[in-house]
């Protein structure tokens, strides 16, 4: 992921957000950090190739790997 982000001059979170947008999904990023909020908005102006999109799909570890925020944390 870091290599892909560096190749596009973006951050890994921006790559993930762009991946969602290119699939026609509406990501809802959450942050209280003003700089991160601004960064999250800058996902236009570049596109991931079909090969990059396919590579990112292989990162999916399935539902069992997900953390339920209702059950984890303070």
UniProtKB/TrEMBL annotation:
For the keyword rRNA processing, the answer is no
Q: Keyword NADP: yes or no?
A: yes
Keyword annotations:
NADP, Oxidoreductase
What molecular functions are annotated in GO for this chain?
oxidoreductase activity, acting on the CH-OH group of donors, NAD or NADP as acceptor
- Ranges for domain NADP-dependent oxidoreductase come to 4-56
Q: Matching InterPro entries, A to Z?
A: AKR (IPR020471), Aldo/ket_reductase_CS (IPR018170), NAD(P)_OxRdtase_dom_sf (IPR036812), NADP_OxRdtase_dom (IPR023210)
A Pfam family assignment = Aldo_ket_red
State the family named in the UniProt similarity comment for this chain. Answer: Belongs to the aldo/keto reductase family.
Name used for this protein in its record: Aldo/keto reductase
């Amino acid at each position: 992921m870091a290599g892909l982000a560096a190749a596009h001059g973006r951050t890994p979170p921006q790559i993930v957000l762009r991946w969602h947008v290119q699939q026609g999904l509406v990501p809802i990023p959450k942050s209280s950090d003003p700089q991160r909020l601004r960064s999250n908005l800058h996902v236009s102006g570049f596109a991931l190739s079909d090969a990059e999109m396919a590579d990112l799909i292989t990162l999916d570890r399935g539902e069992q790997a997900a953390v339920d925020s209702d059950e984890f944390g303070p």
